[in-house]
Amino acid sequence: MDQYRPSRRGVLAAAGAGIAGLVAGCAEPRTESSIEGGSAHEIDRENRADGSTYTDVYEGLIDSVTQIRVLGIENPYTEEEGQGQGSGFVVDDDYIVTNEHVVAGGTEIDLQYINGDWSGTRLLGSDRISDLAVLEADHVPEDATPLGLSETRPVVGQEVLAIGNPYGLEGSMSAGIVSGVDRTVPAPHGEFTFPNVVQTDAAVNPGNSGGPLVDLDGNVVGVVNAGGGDNIGFAISAALSRRVVPALIEDGEYEHPFLGIALATVDRFVAEENDLEEAAGVIVTETIQEPALGALEAADGTVERGGEPVPVGGDVIRSIDEEPIPDRHALSTYLALETSPGETVSVELLRDGEPRTVDLTLGSRPQPN
Question: Which InterPro entries match (predicted)?
Fold first, then answer.
């Protein structure tokens, strides 16, 4: 959603149709920059309206939210270099969190804070599978205090605020609620999905990517990563960010757990065609790599129901480590938040209608190309 643009004056165009932003590979670390700590312009906090609770939250956080300018992005159509922009926020000392797709493909990444200060950065690490990246800033203003990632999982109806730079309009805020939780959202090109995503009706547009979605206590509920002004936006959850961000700071990368399967939720059609007593769980449609190869059985055929293929004959996973797995969303969330590569999990499943338990040692998810 924060894509190539040909000139500094051009307004960012929305990245295609739908909810996803443009993903363009990984950026190279920038060289040492001389632009840091430029002259600041102060926010006029005198002679103003009373505002609201939202105003108080905004005032408490805005110094820590940055605009990100990414230079050297290649236009895939003309092969000319241009620039993109997005948002980010301070999480610890001089570390800035943003989206991987905001900084991907750039050769230089600069920040501008709300007080007018500019800073160069270097890319510490990025992860396409979670769409998260961490920058180390050359300069962080004194008032830019770190924002905390919420330790409480959001609930539907909770009030939230999105702070960032839509269309390059610095320091913008929109209000809404959490309109969905535990979403599994496809990546822009569909080669994988983002787990445990927070859905919101707070307006988010191109340029909001990488900015914080916060509750009214100022805690970051999620890192905004997709939206198009259609009253539906998405954010990478704080729960997943708390796992990924420290690893990006420390190691420059994050390893995601992997079962090595393709799967589908057991709906009514799947249950009927597989003689299952209830429509619950996930059915294995393909075994891709270890640890599933040789340990789990994939569907050996399909039948058509409602114009769609329905898998028949595969293992049906019902729980992992005694945690119920009612659908694919629950599976992706459990793996993402509760497990790590190298851990052994106990998978309870149905095979040919008979219950059995299989112990699997989780692998590492391959990084997409």
Answer: Chloro_Bact_Ser_Proteases, PDZ, PDZ_sf, Peptidase_S1_PA, Peptidase_S1_PA_chymotrypsin, Peptidase_S1C, TAT_signal
